[in-house]
Amino acid sequence: MTNTIRTMTLTLVGLMLAAPVRADDLMDIYQRALQSDPTVRQAEATYLAAAEAKPQARSNILPGLSFDLTKSGQFSQSKSPAQIPGVGTLVGTGYETSLNRNQWSISLTQTLYNMQVFTQLKQAGKRVMKAETDYEAAKQNLLIRVANAYFNVLAAEDSLASAVAARESVARQLEQAQRRFDVGLIAITDVQQSQAGYDDAVATEIEAQRVVATNHEMLREIIGEIVTDLAGPKNDLPLLSPDPANAEQWVQTALSQNLALVSSRINADIAQDDIQIQRAARLPTLSLSAGYNAGTTDQIYTTFAPPLPPSVRPNKSLPEGYNWSLDVRLPIFTGGLNRSRIQQAVYTQRAASETLEQTARQTERQARDSYLGVISKISQVRALRQSVESNRTALRATQAGFEVGTQTTVDVLQSQNNLSKAETSYSRSRYDYIMDVLLLKQAAGSLSVNDLQQVNGWLEEQPNAPGAAAPPQGAAPAAPAAPPPQTP
Fold first, then answer.
1. Rounded to an integer, what distance in angstroms lies between the CA atom of residue 360 and that of residue 352?
2. Percentages helix, strand, coil for the chain, rounded to the nearest 5?
3. What's the mean per-residue pLDDT of the chain?
4. Which residues contact 158 (CB under 8 A, 6 or more apart)?
């Protein structure tokens, strides 16, 4: 029975280990980034801190209530000679005084008119709105950073796979040239040219391995861990034109919704409010104060005249009262401070207006450029797809020509290099198309998780390509296999 259970357990473990592990897709990486990316968490904390500006500004117009409690004591003593009838002059006579006081008061202060405070409250709402806009922009930027790092990894892995395939093809070419040289069909120069091509392919593959490791590290910087298996785009990647198919409509949408532009516009309004706040410092202010105070005072007099016994006279009082005041304050001269602050606020507002204009122009350029980028990338992807097929056909023709002696080794190596470049460019163009789609949405201010979810639907788990896996963290790129021996 025990052996049966052990066998079943081992079988179950073996099946679990043999079960394929699903590749991480774009949404998986994004969810990890939401939890781990320091930049977006910093933006959230900054937003929450800025959101406290409104309750702080509101507190300046709400009533202020305070309570004070004071406890004090005093002791004094006086000695002087005293004339006692029938006794005479006595030395050491006098009195002692003991005073204990307990006082408490409660006061209420209410601002009735203060234009500075009222304007600051209005401005605080704008500051909170700007902080919220900046936080939403940071979340949009996270979508872009995640997608960019994700597709950079895929592009680097595609380049590495192409470099591996090119190195293996050149290695076969070198072996073939070696055999043909051994039977006297070609000169040693053909073998040497093949060897040089193989060495170049090895160097290219090593560099591609380094680029893969670097891009994996960039992705790890966002999500906090190394991911070695990512879903890639489907072969039938949909090439969708922007909707609406009009660049000017995208520009107008961007000018009204782009988050960076909205934030800059709010910042210009805040700077304008600063001018009003500084000017309001010259206006009168009106406030009302009221209070109530009470307390107890215990006072004891002790007189003595030896040999007579001390005489004690206690005295207790309970003072209390009410007070109120209406305060009007009008600043007349502050040594030029108010004037300087007003001028400073004017310059700051001017700078904010210029920044707004710069951001508007930049937003318009980004929207138009991203729109044109999507349109051009659609044509580019289709052209490069055909280029890959054409270069693959040309390579087969060149290899066939080499077999019959009409093509040289250099021709074969050049065709192989052209195919490798075409494959890399085609792979990169598909990722660039996806990024341009997302960048267009960001420029328009409409980028959301739904857009990332749509892109994620264009991905699928990829078959393991040669050399596509990332090296272990901290490991150096692996060197390709040694080339075939060369005959001197």
1. 12
2. 60, 20, 20
3. 83
4. 423, 424, 427, 428, 465, 468
